[in-house]
Amino acid sequence: AAVNSCLTCHQDAHSLNYKYSPHAQLFQAEGILPRPSSKSVTCATCHLPRHKFERPDGTTWVGVNHNNTFTLKPRDRMVKDVCMNCHGLEFSYNSIFDDELVKANFNKPPTQDLETLKMIRVLEKKRSNNS
Length: 131
Prior knowledge:
This protein has helices spanning about 5, 15, 20-30, 45, 75-80, 90-95, 100-105, 115-130; strands at about 50-55, 60-65. The protein has about 130 residues and is mostly helical. It has one domain. It has a two-stranded antiparallel sheet. Helix 5 (about 75-80) runs antiparallel to helix 6.
């Protein structure tokens, strides 16, 4: 779905701030409609994600998850199914759990460093030193 279609109903800060995001800049630079390439990010990229499915004969097909609330709660579901298609784990988690960054539609890189991720790095360092 094109962004303007979404904005006819969605007037929240996150939606309205899309035009200031790096995702919007990528989309505008490509300018391909109706179906942008995998490099373009629109509302549908995140809120109507595509999934690869396998048929019984082993062939695959790509389908869209039309449940647009599927990736909203819990937030980490979006990280796994959407964000990490392009971004790393830490970047994704630090972004999706920053309420102001979500509101601003991810207009800049995350600045927070989640405590959980810090703990994981410390534990991983200890573990690798013991091997």
